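Tutorial, part two.
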Amino acid sequence: MQFDGDVLTIGLDMPMEEIREFEAFVRPRLEYIETIEAEDGTQLRHSALLALLMSLKRTKKELKIPFIERGEAASVAYGTLHWMCHD
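Running the prediction step on this input gives:
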């Protein structure tokens, strides 16, 4: 996880413990974050991270999460995932 100005870059392959730590870190700072980027080359490992990112997006509508907006991802654990994101 890297925080550069108003852009937060995360790895999608976080273990569950890191997802919990990420949530504890990001929720109080959400008003200062404009974009959450996914690190290149990382794949979604836990659906809990996807659910958390969706929750953050619903909490702060103007938050940009290109990974979510793309609507699909490949995962070793889950195969190809598709979703629809409505504001």
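The beta strands are 2-4, 7-10, 35-38, 72-75, 79-82. In part three we will examine how such features are distributed along the chain.
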